[in-house]
Specification:
9 helices, 271 residues
Length: 271
C-alpha cells in the first residue's frame, strides 16, 4: 500500500520530464521486449490455412524464396510488412500478398539493383507441416542478428564513391544500382554535390578562381609556371614530395585554414 509520501511523488516530473511511473513503464516494456526476443521462433504456426502435404509445402517454398530475395535486395523489412506468413487467412489472400511482394522485388531486378549473393542456407521456415517444429531452434534474437548482418553487408555493397565536378570533393553515396550500370547523371565525377547546388556553384573552375582549394601549380626547370594548351597554369591536387615528410606540428603551422601557432610563456610576460 502506497504511503502519502510515495503517492505524492510518484507523478512528480524529473529534470528530463519523466515521472517515476513513466520510467517504470519504459523499463517494463524494455524487459518484455528482451524476453520476447529470447523466445523461440514459432514457425510451426505460420501458414496455418494450408492443407498438409502439397499445398503446405508449396506455400512454404514461396515464403522461403521471397524471404531469400528480400535479404538479397536489402528489403527484409518489406517482407515483414507484407506479413505473408501470418497475415493471410486463405489461399486467395496468400496469392494476393505474394503477388504484391513479388512485384516489389521484380522492380528491383528490372532496375538492376545491387543483389547480394547469399551462399548460406538461410530459410525462414523449415518445419515439415503445420503444428510440427522443424530442426531449427533459433530464437527471434538469433534471427534478427542474421538479418542485421545481411543488412550491413548490403549497405556496404551499395557504398560508392562520387567526385563532385565543381568542388572535386569525394562523397560517399549508397546507390542501389551497380556502379558499372549507373546512368550518365550518376557516373562518378559527373555529378554536382548538394553543397555546390545550394551555393549555386556550377562552374568547374569556380574553386580555382576563388582560390578555395589546397593546390599547387607545376613549374618548369627554370622556375616559371607550366601552362596548358589554353594558357592557364596546370593545377596539382596531390601532395608534393617536399611536404610529405613534415611533422604534425609543421603541418598545423603552415595550413591555410585555422593555422595553429603554439605560444609558450617563458617569464615576466615574455612569450
Amino acid at each position: 500500500m502506497f504511503t502519502a509520501r510515495s503517492e505524492r511523488q510518484k507523478r512528480q516530473r524529473t529534470s528530463c520530464g519523466e515521472t517515476n511511473n513513466s520510467v517504470g513503464n519504459k523499463r517494463r516494456r524494455t524487459k518484455n521486449k528482451e524476453a520476447d526476443l529470447d523466445r523461440r521462433r514459432m514457425t510451426e504456426k505460420y501458414i496455418w490455412w494450408a492443407d498438409p502435404g502439397k499445398e503446405y509445402n508449396e506455400a512454404k517454398e514461396v515464403v522461403n524464396s521471397l524471404y531469400l530475395d528480400s535479404l538479397s535486395y536489402g528489403i527484409v523489412d518489406k517482407f515483414y510488412e507484407k506479413n505473408l506468413f501470418e497475415g493471410p487467412n486463405n489461399r486467395r489472400e496468400f496469392k494476393l500478398q505474394e503477388k504484391a511482394l513479388r512485384q516489389f522485388i521484380d522492380r528491383r531486378k528490372d532496375a538492376n539493383n545491387v543483389r547480394l549473393t547469399i551462399n548460406a542456407d538461410v530459410k525462414f521456415m523449415d518445419n515439415p507441416r503445420h503444428g510440427v517444429m522443424g530442426r531449427s531452434r533459433e530464437t527471434k534474437r538469433q534471427r534478427r542478428n542474421i538479418e542485421e548482418i545481411f543488412k550491413f553487408e548490403y549497405k556496404m555493397r551499395t557504398l560508392q564513391l562520387e567526385t563532385c565536378n565543381v568542388c572535386l570533393e569525394n562523397k560517399l553515396v549508397f546507390s542501389k544500382k551497380e556502379a558499372w550500370s549507373m546512368d550518365a547523371e550518376g557516373e562518378i565525377g559527373n555529378v554536382t554535390c548538394d553543397t555546390c547546388r545550394t551555393n549555386k556553384c556550377s562552374e568547374t573552375e569556380y574553386y580555382l578562381k576563388m582560390n578555395l582549394q589546397p593546390i599547387w601549380f607545376e613549374r618548369r626547370a627554370d622556375g616559371d609556371l607550366r601552362l596548358d594548351e589554353e594558357g592557364n597554369p596546370v593545377p596539382r591536387y596531390d601532395i608534393p614530395n617536399e611536404l610529405k615528410s613534415l611533422t604534425m606540428a609543421e603541418k598545423l603551422l603552415i595550413r591555410r585554414c585555422s593555422p595553429l601557432i603554439p605560444s609558450h610563456h617563458i617569464k615576466n610576460g615574455t612569450y
